[in-house]
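Quick question, first post here. What does this chain look like in 3D?
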Amino acid sequence: MTWNDLANETFLVRHGGTGPQVHDHIVLRFAGRWPPPNILRFAVERGTLLAMVAQGFGVTLLGAASQLSHTVGVVLLPITDEPEPVAFSAIWSPYDQSQTLHNLLDLARCMGESARSAPVALPR
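> Answer (accepted):
Ran it through. Tokens below.
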């Protein structure tokens, strides 16, 4: 999948969570190369957004970690011409020394080293 392949797609993006960053990333990739993208924003959770993709309402961008869970009716494909990794940030309390947090941070570091682009979710 390339950005050119996505030029005529409708992008579904959440209002909350990573939605604003995903929106800005799509706009940045299309700037000066294709007509402005069709982006629809919804006040829904991630699962609902993926259900909308499965129903054929559009496509969305996801973090590489999304490849670890399966969503019926959705296929995840990498964007092969993505020039740089999509930025991701997390905030946690400096007082949290839990093993769960350390596992999450280890996973994020590992994925950051191996991933170059976010996958795009398409209806199957």
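The mean pLDDT is 84.
The two ends are 14 Å apart (CA to CA).
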